[in-house]
Amino acid sequence: MSLEELYREVILDHYRNPRRRDALAAPTAHAEGHNPLCGDEITIDVAVSDGTLTEIAVSGQGCSISQASASMMAEAVTGKTLEEVDTLTGQFKSMMGIGDGADPIDPERPGATLGDLEALQGVKKFPVRIKCADLGWTTLEEALSSD
Amino acid sequence: MADLRHLRQDFPILDRTVNGKRLVYLDSAATTQKPRSVIEAIDHYYRTSNANVHRGAYTLSVEATEAYENARAKVADFIGATDSDELVFTRGTTTGINFVAYGWGLNHLTEGDRIVLTGMEHHSNIVPWQLVARHTGAELAYLPINEDYEVSLDDLDTVVNSRTKIVALSGMSNVTGAFGPVAAVSAAARSVGAITVVDAAQAVPHAPLDVALLGVDFLAFSGHKMLGPTGTGGLWGRRDRLEEMEPTEGGGEMISDVGLYESTWAPIPHKFEAGTPNIAGAVGLGAAVDYLSKVGMSEVRSHERALTKYGIEQLSAVPHLTIHGPADLDNRGGVISFQLADVHPHDIATILDQEGVAVRAGHHCAKPLMRSLGVPATARASFYLYNTPEDVDALVAALHHALELFGVS
């Protein structure tokens, strides 16, 4: 596994230009996640209406993997129904090798259904960094379960 | 540079590769590698003399007790303590500081008393005092760091005021490498009748140290940061201070007599060593101290000083690299924290690891210090006697690779 595969251009782009950073006018749920081991922090606000995640705002600081993953996630989940978000979360975790297996993925192309997020599959080869990639997703799950 | 290169052959782990590259171990501030003599001393103890200490009236137990107490004498001597009863074996620096916080602080602090710390402390020299302050109603006050990353003494006389009972400071920062102003601070503490506690986790392993000359009351250190095994350490305390300190752990081995409702304690140091101690660990720590004494702590210090000079020079030549630490080599040890462009320290650590270079990334258990540095995390390279200029060169080469990967020119 080479570092070039880990630090793909799309990851560095999301790290340097994180998406969905603008605060929401009327969030319906909020969660803060952090990884005490390395200090990565992600804060998420979401607006859910009629079972659809209409808006999301992400803030935080940390390594390229944690911040890029949260940014890509924000793009991917906006406008999705909560059920779709749940499936996507399961698929992402499966790609990282940490899912419960409820949302299996194609082993040949593990990121095929995940779009840009597919770029993160290289993280799986760096086990200590999986938690970084997962932080945004876990924080989103927490926000949605508090809703 | 004091050439200690020949010592590398004493450290078996330095022969291994990581990710196909020579291991370049630059995380000795976290824990040090172990020489063969330490590994073999532990092995030898278990093979030949293993028994519980201070009780069995049989040969093995006598041998184990001798080995354990000999180790105490060696470690005490290593830090300049003339009385080995003043050296309590602990699990490490954290345990030592907690012993003082609870065993001494809890019984000497009352509401409104003050505990003074500095702005460059490790969490293990902050949190125990916060806990004890919460129990007693004492307040915490800080000596801040200045723009040279050193503890500011500007307001020493007002911060260490007449209500101050305890002053606790690091002998050397695990983040910036800055030495703590132990002499000045302990003099101020003495003048108001306060005790001084030194977190010497980074100080004892890297330079000659003599508690008889320091004028402090307690000094805690870790075995694993000085070539010894994990789970070992020492708390040195002045005899009268240790005698007025209460044990914080009760159990076997620490008592003089036990009744149904009251007990009396064994003399120091045993009253602080409840339960079966880490005998093999103490033996290993004794061997570590033998090893360091043979090399000579002045040699260790001058080697690391020269390596730090080289490291700072080489790192300063890397584009977009900022070092967080004092420039004055006489006032700092072999720990170099840095930022590299917008490459996050965790990414630096991952990239360096692929080159076999092991560095620490994160807040280094010193979040208040990181906040005053204005950064959430740093990457940190730290040296010990087995490191070489080639290790610095490998670090620098890997950092250039990090810049390339992140497209920084």
Report on the structure:
The complex is a heterodimer of chains A (147) and B (409). Chain A has 147 residues and is of the alpha+beta class. Chain A has a single domain (3-146), classed as Sufe protein. Chain: A (Alpha-Beta Complex). Chain A has helices spanning 3-6, 9-16, 64-77, 82-96, 130-146; strands at residues 29-35, 40-49, 52-61. Chain A has a three-stranded antiparallel sheet. In chain A, a hairpin with a 2-residue loop joins strand 2 and strand 3. In chain A, helix 2 crosses helix 3 and helix 4 runs antiparallel to helix 5. The longest helix of chain A has 17 residues, at 130-146. Chain A is globular. Chain A starts with a helix and ends with a helix. The model of chain A has no long low-confidence stretch (mean pLDDT 89). With 409 residues, chain B is α/β, with parallel strands linked by helices. Chain B folds into two domains: 5-27 and 296-405, Aspartate Aminotransferase, domain 1; 49-293, Type I PLP-dependent aspartate aminotransferase-like (Major domain) (Aspartate Aminotransferase, domain 2, 3-Layer(aba) Sandwich), CATH 3.40.640. In chain B, 38% of the residues lie in helices and 17% in strands. Chain B has 13 helices and 17 strands. Chain B has a seven-stranded mixed sheet, with helices on both faces. A four-stranded antiparallel sheet of chain B has the order 13-14-17-16, with helices on one face. In chain B, helix 2 packs across helix 9 and helix 10 (297-316) runs parallel beside helix 13 (389-405). Chain B is globular. The model of chain B has no long low-confidence stretch (mean pLDDT 96). Chains A and B meet through helix 1 of A and helix 11 of B.
